[in-house]
């Protein structure tokens, strides 16, 4: 069958600049054409060659080559594709049951020892398409598919593989024959249609010159490197440019379209380009883990795009028109431009090392640190429940709000603090004190309320006299002729606020004297009795006079 052989995939610029439909039109036919050609062709020039077979149901089987001393099985193909029926990589010494091909015979090429790493390297000139599941039969192993011409994924998945590396480049080895690093030139990886499901894989690596995500990608941990040069994914953080330049750098290194999405537990992305290093028009979330993005260009989040993680670190310039949110911490090492309608939020701390230009919403539940110049445009809002630290020049035409640490009271207390940020808005980022004052007002007023209620006690006099049993003694005081003049226990107000209530009820007490007298037999009644009369004038001296007479008073009331 005739087909066109191409040395590499076309550059990604047209797809990055146009809508998703145009991107699919560029990418899908190219990969589909190669997948329809010979799915698997072993390189006849290889010294140690794998063999091909089919399961009882027709599923292709690759009896991988014997592993070396390091456990690496190196398999070379001129054509490497996985169709909808899937592919079984036989890594079992004995007969074994598989999910895709049923029961299969053991692989005699292994020499009695299974491999720990299965490298499938393409030496031909066509890209590879992974449109089905790849299963490792027998002992689980790492699977590496390396094709410098590019790799397309449309419904790809992996079974019994603990680590998967898709490399649109070449593999370089060290002196001992172990994998040292990957080298990329022009190859790209495109995820389309039915997407890529690597949820059963501990680690997924995507290494290419450009990466396009036009469908859903599910995984646990993802490392995505899009650059020209070398990448060492074995050592996190070492995937830097090798220093050799490429005059024709793409506009976009990593592109997640509107229909594309990435859902890992944690992801590390590195994109190097002349313009946008990472372009996010879809959704990228790692709500239970972290996202670390480094870019030689701009990290752009489009309107409708979102970037969500528990911990989010961006080593590059961020341009946001969508939603960027971190659960615990968000840090941006470069400039930060938040456009109108854009939201950048952190449930914990937020820090920016470069200049900040905000036309949308910028918020942190905890402290916010802005080290560079700050421009807050009209209608924009910057807020923090903690302190806002700002080191550079400030140009503020919007709202800039800072709060002191939230009080330990109920959320109701927060409302007065947030509704009266008059001293905290605008350029005043020291308004935390004003907010605290607002919260204190509703707390302290409780005492004044009791004091003010004294004049109006007649309305609640009856219930008050019923609760305090001891206050009944004041009735005895009324029986004394001299008590009204010397009963002003103004000093007793702080002792028991109930006393004023009883004092005002004096006129109503003549009706229930006798039963009340029976209850307050103890001498303490005398003290309370003195507190009933108009208390404003004479304090404690009066209390000394009626100390002894208490017995006679009771005697007089009995008749």
How are the SSEs placed, and which strands pair?
Blueprint: H1 13-17, H2 20-36, E1 40-42, E2 51-54, E3 60-63, E4 72-80, E5 87-91, E6 96-98, E7 102-104, E8 117-122, E9 128-130, E10 133-138, E11 141-146, E12 151-153, E13 156-159, E14 161-167, E15 170-173, E16 179-184, E17 188-191, E18 196-208, E19 210-213, E20 216-226, E21 229-231, E22 252-256, E23 261-263, E24 266-271, E25 276-280, E26 283-301, E27 306-320, E28 323-332, E29 336-338, E30 343-346, E31 349-352, E32 356-358, E33 361-364, E34 368-370, E35 374-376, E36 381-384, E37 388-390, E38 394-396, E39 399-402, H3 414-419, H4 432-443, H5 446-452, H6 461-466, H7 474-479, H8 483-486, H9 498-504, H10 513-518, H11 524-531, H12 541-544, H13 550-557
Parallel strand pairs: 3-5, 4-8, 5-10, 8-11, 9-12, 10-13, 11-14, 12-17, 13-18, 14-18, 17-19, 18-20, 19-22, 20-23, 20-24, 22-25, 23-26, 24-26, 25-26, 26-27, 27-28, 27-29, 28-30, 28-31, 29-32, 30-33, 31-34, 32-35, 33-36, 34-37, 35-38, 36-39
Antiparallel strand pairs: 1-4, 2-3, 6-7, 15-16, 16-21
